[in-house]
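Sanity check

After download, print the first record. It should look like this:
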Amino acid sequence: MTHVPESPDSASQPPVRELAEIPAVEVITRAAVMLMSAAAEKMGLSSDEPDESPHRDLDEARRLITALAGLVKASAEYLGPHAGPVRDGLKQLQLAFRESSAFPDEPGHGPGEKYTGPVW
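Expected structure tokens:
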């Protein structure tokens, strides 16, 4: 790995871990949390008025939720105790997406439901 010179305030920051040192479950969980957070932002859920959020973009949210569903489906067996909360977060996003859509998808056709099955 290439040595990067330290900045003056790098002494006060904890060292960055090398990717090789991070367990796979942690990488997968962090990726899932990032996808969840980004999808929530794209649905405007961090705003008091989600429908008025300048970040609201349901097409983008659909893509993020579908990517999250694929990740969860492919990695559930490796997540151990994290699997339940990650699945729950995904389901809540799928339900919130359906509720926030002007023309909700039929059950089984919403974002990520090709991986998770219908969400009610």
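If your output differs, re-run the checksum step. Summary of this record's structure: The helical segments are 24-42, 58-79, 83-100, 113-116.
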